[in-house]
Amino acid sequence: MDTRCLIVLLSFLAALDGKKFRCDYRYFHNANGWLKLHRVPANWAEARLRCHLEGSNLASPLNVGLKSAMSVLIGEASGDMTCGAFTGIHAMFSRGDLYSIEGVPLSKIPHTWASGEPDNYKDQESCIAMLPDGNLADVDCSDPLPYICYKSSAKTMVMTSCGTTDNEYAFDARTGSCYKFHSVPRTWSRAYMACSAEGGHLAIINNDAEATVIRELFAKHPGGSMIGNFWKDVAFVGFHDWNEHGEWLTIHGETLQEAGYAKFSGGEPNNATTGEYCGAVYRTALLDDLWCENKYAFICEKNPDSLLCDNDL
């Protein structure tokens, strides 16, 4: 086969593969997967969580192909990456024992240390960053750095009708939206983050039909099916008092009346024991105010097209 034809074919296959995950990720053939550079710095724990919620892992240079792809993204960011980017290599579970997110020990990851590294400065460096030249340095996990997420290609990945590879999202024709019930409890802020990372948002109830959808979602998740010690008859949704303590708006800035649904349960909102500033819903689909820092189930909503590429529509 002519070399030019081979290049065109590989590019075409890569483009096809690129449709199977997310448009905010970029397919790299030599990495056999998709990568995304997060330029907004975060600490290592936040970076790991964000990648996980997006359906990927905090990237590590596990092989030559992955290292090359990561280097391309870091190089393109140039001035933003002078201190490098977090990798998934860490010693969070046992100081000094460095492993990737996937459980690969550093000893089996091809790497070169930067000059003077590792130095475990002030005995506080248990995470590993990749510098612009491809070398590694140990860094403080609490310091904010950019980071790269990686999703390995898999033949079993299928893009659903909800425009995502996450098959827990289900389309409902009555509202034209897709919904996912998260039975693993999180704080309201973490719930907001999880929905956003998945390409959606905390669910906003716009009418009685959507309230019916919410009741049905709850019915599919009885309390006995949820693991953990938390209140299982409520779930966080997308409204908040925006720190005004008394005025409730959706996360899209509308009053509940403007959004189309403002039916609170009897006696709610009551700001019980002070601090109930976050929006939630009972199994009845009636609204409630809840403590933002307590952990509860939550419901995400997404537009079916929100993760599709333009040429998929």
TrEMBL record:
Organism lineage: Eukaryota, Metazoa, Ecdysozoa, Arthropoda, Hexapoda
Record's protein name: Macrophage mannose receptor 1-like
Pfam families: Lectin_C (PF00059)
Signal peptide: 1-18
Domain of life: Eukaryota
Keywords linked to the UniProt accession: Disulfide bond, Signal
Domain C-type lectin, first and last residues per copy: 43-150, 174-301
